[in-house]
Amino acid sequence: MSARLCALALAASTAPAVATGAAVPVKFDDVMQTLDAANGGELIVDATPALGDGNATTVNVTQVHLALTTVPEAITVSWACDAPTMIRWGTDAQLKNPPVPPFSSETYTMVSVPVETDSFVNYTSPVLNHATIAGLSPRETYFYQIVPVPDPQKNSTAPVAAPSGIFKFTTPPAIGDTAPMIFDVVGDLGQTNYSVDTMAHIIADAENATEFLLHVGDMSYADCLNPRWDSYFELIEPLASRLPWMVTAGNHEIEPNNLTGHIMDPYKARYQMPQFAPTVDTTEYFQNLSYHGLDCTPDQFVGSYDYGNSFYSFRAGMVHFIVLNPYTHTENASNQFDWLNAELSTRVDKSVTPWTMAMWHNPWYNSNPAHQNEYPTTTMRASMEQLMVDAGVAVIFNGHVHAYERTYPVAFNQTNSSAPTYIVIGDGGNREGHAPDYPADKPDWSAFRNASDYGHGRMRILNTSHAVWEWHTNQADEWIVSDSAIITNPHAGPAPAPAPSCNATDLVKNHTGPPALCAYESNRTHHHTVGYGFDMETSFARKAFADLGIDYDKVFFGDSCINQTDADILLQMSLQIAAFQAVTAVGPSYASLCCPIANALVDITYNLTELGTPIYSFGTLIQDLLAKNYSDAKSVLSSTEWCNHSAVACADDANTIGQGC
């Protein structure tokens, strides 16, 4: 099998048994990944190295992935290749810019005891290369290819790299850019059928405006079987080669090196995150054969690995991101604590990046039975929670628990509108499966939880004060929004002043709409409706319309509407109310936009299939605006911000809302 079709493995004499089952080919972005059919099992492994055209001296470029840097004008490209290589790049596939050589080309060697084995295994990685392409423009698309370095000596015995395919990426927004921005979040991913499903759904997001990905730890689940890092990067290459992939360390990255006692060597070598300072690792942690490899990825562990990829920050658009590591010291006066304190107090500039968000692996707020009261978590929370609250951190992403949970804004176990919202998203699909079911009792701070589905999250930063969070589950070929919420920035500043609006009620009363509003083909599927999490009843809908002076029956039960399902009616109702509320809530600068947009929404809400993106984003807004009666609705729906949001949501559909903007 080629390296594209299969994972690499240790020789059979050193590898633990892998249950293969029947090989099932699964379509993934034009790449066939051979998977184990049983229980969403692991990739089938193969010890064949990646070669080029059959010549023993030709080697392929593999494991291509991207990362953001400290500025949006540069992107770091990483890849594996045992021959000298460099990057050709440009604004089109001609790749006319000067080539970029790697700034680092190194291997690492490990001796470790893989999980559920009882012997030490030696491993040396391929040559891992990192290069930074600089001089880029924000939010521009670039093409790149990894090619061999010309050999002036024409040494026929030296390995030669076969050129990679041509990849492309789009740079993130400029720091401080107030245009809306979208990024995805995933956790505890692994290498199973479920992992592939999750990545396929993220790819769908990447094709629909997502700009980068956050991974909240536990990536490959190599668990000291180091060739699984190679297979992991092969697996994610179709996505990671086009979407910058920002990571934080989980317990499955601990993986001690028994040559040195240091930890996380694969994580250090394979990723190149924006670094505040060079890596310092003084850990001395050695495995004991009697533990059968279970000491490779301990939950209850704190080492001494600072800086480098361990903890760092980066900025994109309106957001300053903080990335932390629970598995190195976090107590007061630790290097990580001092760095975080300085970062939040002196380097976060709310006038440039009004949002602050953070990610690390262990959740501070978790109502699942799994991973309760682990000392890396409790120690970190005791020293750092006050810093997060004081700095106005808006959202904190975690993993570790293989489930999904979203909190209300909470601090010190009390809901507080000025506190962070915590999102546990450890449901990527790894081989360990789901966490236990949640207990019946739910803490007051817990808003939504699920321990039965796999998926990922999507965050839309709308403006300086509001964002929309969605949890997308893998229940169908198309993503399903199984939870959503409006996130309010704790330190957003005052909302724009309200002003007179156009008369939306009269507009709606007099609007008959095209026949298509009701007489559309009823080919909707269940997930389009359940995705919003709506729990409004028809009586609530009628009351909402009555409050606006609108005849509900006239709008929804005309002659051509008789055959619509209750679910479709409720969905249309919620979207129409969103339009009505929007145009009555905002000010004069909106007057030139509100009526056209309201008309467009009333006319096009029937079309759920072609307008999936704006429909979903509208649904999350109206869900919170009506069900929770947000007092800050005026800020959410102010003219410039709403128009920008709609334009992004409809970027690929110029005939609808985006046209009005």
What features would you describe in this structure?
The chain is an alpha+beta fold and 661 residues long. It folds into 2 domains: 173-488, Purple Acid Phosphatase, chain A, domain 2, CATH 3.60.21; 504-660, no CATH class. The protein is 24% helix and 23% strand. It contains 15 helices and 33 strands. A 7-stranded mixed beta sheet has the order 22-23-24-25-29-26-30, with no helix packed on it. It has a 6-stranded mixed beta sheet with strand order 19-18-17-31-32-33. A hairpin with a 2-residue loop joins strand 22 and strand 23 (319-323).
Layout of strands and helices, then pairs:
Elements: E1 7-8, E2 23-28, E3 31-36, E4 45-46, E5 58-60, E6 62-68, E7 75-80, E8 85-90, E9 97-100, E10 104-106, E11 109-112, E12 121-124, E13 128-133, E14 141-148, E15 160-162, E16 167-170, E17 181-186, H1 193-206, E18 213-215, H2 227-240, E19 245-247, H3 265-270, E20 280-281, E21 305-306, E22 312-316, E23 319-323, H4 335-347, E24 355-359, H5 375-390, E25 395-398, E26 404-407, E27 410-411, E28 414-415, E29 421-425, E30 446-450, E31 455-461, E32 466-473, E33 480-488, H6 504-509, H7 526-530, H8 538-547, H9 552-556, H10 566-585, H11 591-604, H12 612-627, H13 633-636, H14 639-649, H15 657-660
CATH architecture field of the largest domain: 4-Layer Sandwich
Main beta sheet: strand number and arrangement?
Answer: 7 strands, mixed
Low-confidence stretches: 1-56, 493-545, 555-661
The domain tally reads 2
Span between termini: 51 Å
Sheet-strand content, in percent, reads 15-25%
Q: What is the arithmetic mean of pLDDT? A: 74
User: Judging from the principal axes of the Cα atoms, what is the shape?
Assistant: globular
The number of E-state strands comes to 33
CATH topology group of the largest domain: Purple Acid Phosphatase, chain A, domain 2
CATH class of the largest domain: Alpha Beta
The helix fraction, in percent, is 10-25%
Determine the CATH superfamily of the largest domain. Metallo-dependent phosphatases
What is the C-alpha radius of gyration, as a whole number of Å? Answer: 26 Å
Number of helices: 15
Helix vs. strand class: alpha+beta
Strand order of the largest sheet: 22-23-24-25-29-26-30
